[in-house]
Amino acid sequence: MPNLHYYVTGNTADGLVNFLDSNLNGIDQVIKLRHPSASLKTKVIQNLLEHYQNNTIEVLHSPLGSRYLDGIIIRERSLAFLDEAIVTGESTAINLEETVPTKDYPDLTDFNVLTQSAYDSFAKGLSIHDELEEVYISQMDFNRADQFTAEFISRLLTGVSKKDRTAHTFHRLFGTNTVDGVVNVVPHLNENIENVFFIKGRAGTGKSTFMKKISKACVEHGFDVEMYHCSFDSNSIDMVLVRDLDVCIFDSTDPHEFFPERDGEEIVDLYEELVTPGTDERYEAEINELNNNYKSYMKQGILYLQLAGIKFDKNEQGFSNTDVQKAVVYTLNSV
Q1: Organism's domain of life (predicted)?
Q2: Per residue in 235-249, pLDDT tens?
Q3: What's the confidence (pLDDT) of residue 193?
């Protein structure tokens, strides 16, 4: 199985969210790398990725941008190497300063202020997005929504044997807001899944609720579920992936809009199924205004993250390849 890429931390309207713990289920050895430099820890993690290349590795991307990593999980070895910044639970620390010492500790004051400004912008955008949802909620057929969801769950699970086990839910993100813009790894997650459902709809048309109910049904059937949260509103769900069923269901709307390209992929349009026909046209002016307003705050938030990223990178020190290799050897000898 190829390596699996996803996020466990993200920049959202709720601030920085962290879903790491659910992904450490069954991992006996959790190693956190300690050093003031995020770039050094990333380079060590990249080297560890190469060292364990014969294993299937879960690569945790970073909301700091494409130049950084949060860590790796090697599930078949029950082993994880993580940047200390994301670790909240029990772990073993490896202090890389023992082998790569530094006297220059980063001043993250400006970075933190700018990042908080980004979160504030996202929060304002979310409040406007909530108003947009109300337009569509007022036109929803909730009885039909319940019926349609039940029919879809039946389609997935009828004739499938129930597993006599306690299933686990892995909480993740498939992308987030970063210095590189709004990024995602949706094509990577979908590429080897046989049945992929592209959920179309509008704000407030029940996409997240639909997926939460599907997830609950699959867990009750004994199947582990990967639940990918929205990087705008982390209480919402953007994807449910059930590997035992070879099924992925995801919110395929802006800013992660895709369309079927192969057999086994299909669109499920909740707007067409559940919303009063003509709603888009009837409320066009209001919808356009709310859409433009909330997106302007999202763009503003991304700009703050980009400015924060510049400050963060200026604080980062340069380390030689010799320093990196010393840190890698020290890490491996400590495991």
Answers
A1: Bacteria
A2: 999 999 999 999 999
A3: 98
- Please report, in angstroms and rounded to a whole number, the separation of the first and last CA atoms in the chain: 25
Any domain includes 296: no
Instruction: Give kind and range of the element (H or E) at residue 196.
Output: strand 195-200
> 252: which 2 tokens?
């395929």
Residue 162 has pLDDT above 90, yes or no: yes
Measured CA to CA, the distance from residue 303 to residue 332 in angstroms comes to 39
Same domain as 214, residue 144: yes
d(CA 8, CA 24): 11
Do 26 and 86 share a domain, yes or no?
yes
In a domain, 284, yes or no: no
Question: How many Å separate Cα 334 from the centre of its chain?
Answer: 30
Number of domains in the chain: 2
Q: What share of the chain is helix, strand, coil (3-state, %, to 5)?
A: 45, 25, 30
Task: Write the DSSP symbol of residue 76.
Answer: G
Give the Cα separation of 257 and 254 in Å (integer): 5
| Sheet with 225-229, side-by-side order of all strands | 92-95, 29-34, 79-83, 69-74, 58-61, 4-7, 169-173, 225-229, 237-242, 247-251, 195-200, 265-269
Strand partners, 266: 197
Indicate whether 117 belongs to any domain. Answer: no
Let me know if residue 174 belongs to a domain.
Answer: yes
Q: How confident is the model at residue 1 (pLDDT cuts 50, 70, 90)?
A: confident
Residue count (the chain): 335
Range of the domain at 67: 4-105+318-334
